[in-house]
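**User:**
Make up any protein.

**Assistant:**
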Amino acid sequence: MKNLARILRPLAVTALAGATLLSSAGAAVAASPTHRGDIQLSYVAVVRVAIGTGDQDFRVRITDPETLNAALDNKEGRKRTHIHGLVVRPKPDVNKGYHWHLDPASIGFVESSIEVCDGSPADVEKGAVTSDYYCPWSSRVVEVWDNSGAAVR
């Protein structure tokens, strides 16, 4: 519960104040309410994994402003990182087409990670990734949407 409060409090204060969240690279992400006047609580990122047989995409829910800024830094090429997060089964959440998703509270963007969590989204689906975590080294964020489906830049 403390983690949820830690995530929601900055979003609520930022949205109500009409301020913006700034990444260390200087990219601004507006904390804007949705069309119903709700506070923006999550974003969806499409992550592309380059593998030998072609690219595979999967989706993650982002609920933390720092993680959102890290995802945007990754998308824009400002930082060379890859996604890392705890695999949750069997519910796909926003990860349509799969029977797993990454726990939003565990998602981070890292410069390096252990090999046992590397692989394709299909490898995670088949259970071939033997770690509880998924960290595809060749991943990059290709899209980020807000609650209304609008692209975030």
